[in-house]
């Protein structure tokens, strides 16, 4: 299958290793991964902060750049959710008919990583090996916007050597919320404190999620407190093999 | 205090500042966590008992949306049926008008006190204060509402207005204030729930037996029969709705349902969503007046107060479907930590964040649409499927637009967004910024982590380390390690798509 990687601007800049992991993983499963260099951003930050007209160029670019692939994969529940739920809204509000049509074409091909693996490629055991104690945080947008359900857990359970432990109050928001963490820093911190307490209660070495933004927020707190708990994107655990056991 | 000032409490700071004060109150946070957690679990359990829960939600949402589209028709029909049943219908465009109508009606009875059934609509218009100005004392008879009234406090939750109060606080309030309003609390009052309830019961019974006039809200009104419905848990509502001679009901115009049969759906959804009960203990339905039984004068005040303006907004109008169950408050992680006062409105929590700005104009409650992480828990919990996150981002756009119109110079945020938009609009500019960021990070990062930072991100970096931007972006790595594919050539770094 010819799959385009939509890395997202945040991962591109901060977590290229997640993009490399997605590429490695999909190639290992026998697929062709392409990275259209003209891609930039889904426009989520602008859209969710209320700068809606400003997202139009990004929506237009996305529809152009990612047209014609068998599938487009994003290692981010919230960016995939933005494309799926809101690109149509922006196109209808500010664009023309041709843009609306282009968005209609591309949106059904866009998947978050666990959806692509389980639903489209039909795999749950991706041949990974990660002999560590791991707990999984289902990010809000994966959980409630995309409804990925237990797909990520199915994938993780099939990982060799993994000790997957349940996160208490897993479905509670971590308090990141994009610009919410800046605009309402105090509430965000209070939510973060509870999330960190739950993570520490599991005794996990790694906290795993499908969104590096939430992981940056939680991991940033865990790092500041010198807890020693690491964060790892789902893609990176799934890309790990016996060869690179740490 | 005029009515409109009650939808938004004047003097309450913007949400982030009010939230900071609330967060510092550890007792408040503990009370809230315990209370919302309990109701949340009960709600999940009783909703799971119904096989057709999702169908019920879909039906309720459809009925509400359809009713709102033809609201004028259903309201006129309601006026007709209520009048035919011996009631009198009054139309109030805003809070001041509604208060004037109720004051006039009470005065006409010659009475100077009224008993009240808990009502969001009368809270919204500030009726108690308006009546007090006219020399009429309004007694709240719902237990939690009584606590709030005695403490001269404000409600913190739609369903459980005194959710922020612990039982020892309630004991203090009863001991200190009950005597001022009527029968005092007993000398040996403990903070046992049973004792507190008994003190309130004795205090309130005097009021019920004396009052000639009652004021209520309405949960629903059926247009085809003119039947008005109030659901409650304590029986105080039943007392108010049956004992007095005159009953005045103030109802938001969005509460009308086309037919009596629609109650079938809503009376299953409301108690389960609000208190986590299969059925609420008291459901009172009345149709006009009946000779020799119950109130002999019935007045229905239909309140607009910003609702038709809300109705005009195709995305925002779904907020008018709200049946005030407060399930969204109980699942909201932001509400759970701040409580209702931080929202500065009688309508707190997620529904308040979308309803309040619409009722008063988004400029007057501009921080509320941003008081959410958009986690979506509220949408999942809502029995009438109000897409609260959708309305929140819709109102955020309106808040930003309002600022753009009203200011000569753009805000700092607008400038940052504009700059970010320019960068994210072009892969070449994005790549350049990535190179700069990597360079800058190498100067300030230690072990790949950035500690405390100045400026607008200081509040972030006070509690969290920030990972340093990568030395090499993914796009740079791809270009360096991969042979260009035909696709790379088709979509060049300049961002033009060559066909």
UniProtKB/TrEMBL annotation, chain A:
Q: Which GO terms describe its molecular function?
A: oxidoreductase activity
Question: Which residues does the UniProt record annotate as the domain Cysteine-rich?
Answer: 3-83, 134-218
Q: Which residues belong to the signal peptide in this entry?
A: none
- By its UniProt entry, which InterPro entries does this protein fall under? Cys_rich_dom
- One GO cellular component term: cytosol
Stated name of the protein = CoB-CoM heterodisulfide reductase
Please give the organism: Streptomyces sviceus (strain ATCC 29083 / DSM 924 / JCM 4929 / NBRC 13980 / NCIMB 11184 / NRRL 5439 / UC 5370)
What does UniProt list as this organism's lineage?
Bacteria, Bacillati, Actinomycetota, Actinomycetes, Kitasatosporales
Automatic annotation (TrEMBL), chain B:
Comp. bias (Basic and acidic residues)? 485-499
**Boundaries of every Lactate utilization protein B C-terminal domain copy:** 410-481
The keyword Protein transport belongs to this UniProt entry's keyword annotation = no
Residues covered by region (Disordered): 478-499
Q: Which GO terms describe its biological process?
A: lactate metabolic process
Residues of the 4Fe-4S ferredoxin-type domain: 319-386
Which of UniProt's keywords are assigned here?
4Fe-4S, Electron transport, Iron, Iron-sulfur, Metal-binding, Repeat, Transport
One family from Pfam that matches here is Fer4_8
Q: Is DNA-binding set as a keyword in this record?
A: no
For this UniProt entry, the molecular function terms from Gene Ontology, in alphabetical order, are: 4 iron, 4 sulfur cluster binding
Q: Show where the LUD domain sits.
A: 77-302
- Cross-referenced InterPro entries: 4Fe4S_Fe-S-bd, FTHF_cligase-like_sf, Helical_ferredxn, LUD_dom, LutB/LldF, LutB_C, NagB/RpiA_transferase-like
Family matches, as PANTHER family: LACTATE UTILIZATION PROTEIN B
Q: What NCBIfam families does the annotation carry?
A: LutB/LldF family L-lactate oxidation iron-sulfur protein
Descriptive protein name: Iron-sulfur cluster-binding protein
């Amino acid at each position: 299958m010819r799959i385009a990687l939509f890395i997202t601007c945040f991962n591109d800049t901060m977590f290229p290793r997640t993009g490399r992991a997605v590429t490695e993983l999909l190639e290992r499963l026998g697929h062709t991964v392409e990275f259209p260099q003209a891609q930039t951003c889904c426009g989520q930050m602008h859209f969710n902060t209320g700068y809606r007209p400003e997202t139009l160029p990004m929506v237009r670019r996305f529809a152009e750049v990612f047209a014609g692939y068998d599938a487009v994969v994003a290692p981010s529940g919230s960016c995939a959710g933005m494309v799926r739920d809101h690109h149509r809204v922006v196109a209808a509000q500010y664009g023309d008919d041709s843009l609306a049509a282009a968005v209609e074409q591309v949106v059904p091909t866009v998947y978050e990583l666990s959806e692509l693996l389980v639903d489209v490629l039909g795999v749950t055991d991706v041949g990974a090996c990660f002999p560590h104690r791991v707990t999984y945080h289902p990010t809000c947008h994966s959980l409630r916007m995309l409804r990925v359900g237990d797909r990520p857990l199915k994938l993780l359970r099939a990982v060799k050597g993994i000790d997957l432990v349940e996160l208490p109050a897993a479905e509670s928001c971590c308090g990141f919320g994009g610009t919410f963490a800046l605009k309402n820093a105090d509430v965000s911190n209070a939510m973060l404190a509870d999330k960190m307490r739950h993570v520490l209660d599991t005794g996990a070495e790694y906290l795993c999620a499908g969104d590096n933004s939430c992981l940056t927020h939680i991991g940033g707190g865990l790092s500041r407190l010198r807890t020693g708990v690491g964060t790892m994107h789902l893609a990176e655990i799934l890309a790990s093999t016996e060869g690179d056991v740490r | 205090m005029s009515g409109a000032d009650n939808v938004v409490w004047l003097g309450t700071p913007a949400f982030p500042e009010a939230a900071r004060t609330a967060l510092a109150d550890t007792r408040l946070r503990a009370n809230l966590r315990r209370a919302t957690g309990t109701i949340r679990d009960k709600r999940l359990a009783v909703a799971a008992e119904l096989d057709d829960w999702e169908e019920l939600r879909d039906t309720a949402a459809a009925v509400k949306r359809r009713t709102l589209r033809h609201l004028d028709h259903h309201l006129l029909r309601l006026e007709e049926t209520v009048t035919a049943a011996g009631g009198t219908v009054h139309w109030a465009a805003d809070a001041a008008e509604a208060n004037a109508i109720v004051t006039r009606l009470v005065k006409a009875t010659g009475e100077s006190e009224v008993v009240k059934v808990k009502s969001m609509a009368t809270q919204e218009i500030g009726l108690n204060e308006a009546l007090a100005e006219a020399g009429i004392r309004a007694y709240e008879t719902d237990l939690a509402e009584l606590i709030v009234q005695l403490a001269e406090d404000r409600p913190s939750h739609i369903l459980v207005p005194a959710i922020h109060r612990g039982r020892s606080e309630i004991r203090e309030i009863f001991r200190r204030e009950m005597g001022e309003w009527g029968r005092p609390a007993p000398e040996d009052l403990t903070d046992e729930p049973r004792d507190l309830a008994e003190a309130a019961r004795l205090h309130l019974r005097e009021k019920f037996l004396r009052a000639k006039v009652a004021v209520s809200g309405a949960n629903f009104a059926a247009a085809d029969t003119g039947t008005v419905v109030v659901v409650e848990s304590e029986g105080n509502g039943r007392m108010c709705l049956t004992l007095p001679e005159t009953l005045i009901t103030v109802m938001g115009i969005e509460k009308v349902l086309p037919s009596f049969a629609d109650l079938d759906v809503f009376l299953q959804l409301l108690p389960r969503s609000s208190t986590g009960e299969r059925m609420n203990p008291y459901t009172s339905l009345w149709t006009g007046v009946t000779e020799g039984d119950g109130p002999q004068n019935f007045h229905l005040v239909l309140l607009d107060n910003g609702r038709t303006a809300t109705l005009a907004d195709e995305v925002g109008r779904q907020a008018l479907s709200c049946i005030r169950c407060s399930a969204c408050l109980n699942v909201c992680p932001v509400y759970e930590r701040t409580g209702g006062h931080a929202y500065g409105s009688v309508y707190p929590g997620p529904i308040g964040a979308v309803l309040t700005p619409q009722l008063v104009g988004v400029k007057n409650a501009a921080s509320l649409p941003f008081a959410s992480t958009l986690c979506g828990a509220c949408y999942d919990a809502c029995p009438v499927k109000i897409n609260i996150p959708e309305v929140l981002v819709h109102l955020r756009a309106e808040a930003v637009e309002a600022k753009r119109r009203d200011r000569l110079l753009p805000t700092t945020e607008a400038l940052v967004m504009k700059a970010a938009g320019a960068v994210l609009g072009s892969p070449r500019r994005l790549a350049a910024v990535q190179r700069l960021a990597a360079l800058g990070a190498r100067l300030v990062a230690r072990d790949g982590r950035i500690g405390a930072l100045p400026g607008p991100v200081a509040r972030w970096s006070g509690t969290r380390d920030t990972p340093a931007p990568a030395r090499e972006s993914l796009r740079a790595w791809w270009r360096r390690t991969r042979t260009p594919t035909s696709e790379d050539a088709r979509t060049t770094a300049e961002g033009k798509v060559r066909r």
